[in-house]
Specification:
Length: 458
């Protein structure tokens, strides 16, 4: 229910099992029931949901919490002892991805600037108007009122306080899709930037992703050095309750994938991409295990059918990289996992990280995605992602010289022989070619200028 209107339940101070729907709130039934909430009649519910004009009827239900939408006078709730707060669901109540408490001006402005990522002029203007309304404490169209008696922080945040979080916090909530985790960005009262992030899952109680988070943080702490300079730190983990969660220090900023597409200085954008790439090279150098490639090669798995489809000879590829070092590998260094705040950056989501991984894999995968965005090719309908990928590695795009330079620097840092680069990237693309990334291996092995013998970089 995380990306439905039922995501509003995660702003309440108690977990919800029962709800009553007053006339006008019928469209809430399906998302509530899909999320395991029982819609009841004739008994006191944990939450009442209604149009704001029915505030007096909400009081009569006796529910300790209520969600009200639309225009209407809420005095009846306040007179009955409810604390009433307004929230802005972005982009909409029907499909919210971010829930912003309007009472927390600094947190709200941070969310609008970094988490909602509007696309198009209309949405950008809406965010500007919203920011002004927050500053002026004015009513905001599309906002939702949440009434609680007594007032309290969201129930997952209250669990997180047992891990050492302070008693008073401002916050915003980013909702994940399907089995993705959601995250509260937690602020010291009145602060304009978050200090912590609390991750939890609205849709399952599986502790494994959270235990993997801890393993990733433990790996970072064990390796030390450069890797710790641009990564968050783990505050604590809880897997015993109904909602496993982790708390870590906040990585600030907007996802690089959106930041590169925003208006701004191209040279500054290129400088950040280079900084991330050279940091990856430094991590590889510091974490290198000479001759350690055997372990990651033995653990390699490939998406179904991709080896047969491309005609790749995996045994030959592995034989051509025997003896190269193993390095720390993030294993999913998508630009959405790089956050940019001014000239600073942080890399998040290390749950799949591997102590002994493939050299050049993180570097190549990161640049294969970031540089075509920087060049405008990924968003050019005349080019598209398949051709943009091929053009970059063939040397035909504007950023190809930068790619080649960084690959050379990566090889120099690890002492890689030139003839190992093509096979290493071939194994990398085969492993990563799942879902929307299927084109990586397809293009790589189909293009005569790419593939295991790729040497354009040298």
């Amino acid at each position: 229910m995380s990306h439905t209107r039922a995501g509003l339940l995660y702003v309440l101070p108690e977990a919800t099992e029962t709800a009553v729907l007053l006339p006008g709130a019928e469209e809430w039934r399906e998302p509530l029931e899909e999320g395991g909430v029982r819609v009841v009649e004739g008994e006191t519910p944990q939450v009442a949901i209604a149009p704001a004009e029915r505030a007096a009827e909400v009081v009569a239900t006796g529910a300790p919490s209520a969600i009200l939408f639309g225009r209407g006078d809420l005095k009846a709730l306040q007179q009955a002892g409810y604390s009433v707060q307004r929230y802005l669901p972005v982009p909409s109540l029907a499909e919210p991805s971010v829930l912003i408490p309007l009472a927390y001006g600094g947190a709200a402005r941070y969310a609008l600037a970094n988490l909602s990522v509007p696309a198009g002029l209309v949405k950008r203007l809406r965010n500007v108007v919203a920011g002004l309304a927050i500053s002026a404490k004015a009513p905001l169209p599309g906002s939702v009122a949440v009434a609680t008696r007594p007032a309290g922080l969201p129930f997952p945040v209250r669990t997180g306080q047992q891990l050492g979080l302070p008693p008073r916090l401002d916050w915003v909530l980013m909702l994940g899709r399907a089995r993705e985790r959601s995250a509260y960005f937690l602020f010291k009262p009145g602060a304009s930037k978050p200090s912590w992030v609390l991750k939890f899952s609205p849709n399952h109680s599986d502790p494994d992703p959270f235990l993997s988070d801890k393993r990733g943080h433990d790996l970072i702490a064990d390796v030390g050095g450069a890797i710790t300079q641009h990564t968050p730190s783990l505050v604590g983990i809880s897997v015993d309750g109904p909602r496993p969660l982790t708390v870590e220090t906040a990585a600030l900023g907007a996802p690089l994938v959106y930041w590169l597409r925003s208006s701004g200085n191209a040279a500054r954008k290129r400088a950040v991409v280079e900084a991330v790439a050279r940091w990856l090279i430094q991590i590889s150098k510091e974490s290198a295990v000479p001759g350690g490639i055997a372990e990651p090669l033995a653990a390699l798995g490939f998406p179904e059918g991709i080896v047969e489809e491309t005609g790749a000879d995996v045994a030959v590829l592995k034989a051509r990289v025997v003896g190269v070092p193993a390095v720390v590998e993030h294993k999913d260094l998508d630009p959405t996992h790089v956050l940019v705040d001014g000239s600073a950056f942080n890399v998040i989501d290390w749950e799949e990280a591997q102590r002994h991984g493939l050299p050049l894999a993180d570097l190549a995968f990161f640049l294969a995605q970031a540089l075509p965005i920087l060049d405008g090719e990924l968003d050019d309908p005349a080019i598209g992602r398949r051709d943009a990928f091929a053009r970059l590695f063939r040397g035909d795009s504007a950023s190809a010289p930068l790619l080649f330079q960084l690959v050379r620097e990566g090889c120099d840092a690890l002492g890689l022989a030139p003839e190992t680069v093509g096979p290493l990237l071939s194994l990398t693309w085969l492993r990563l070619s799942t879902g929307p990334r299927r084109h990586l291996a397809e293009v790589w092995f189909a293009d005569p200028r790419l593939g295991p013998s790729w040497d354009a970089w040298s």
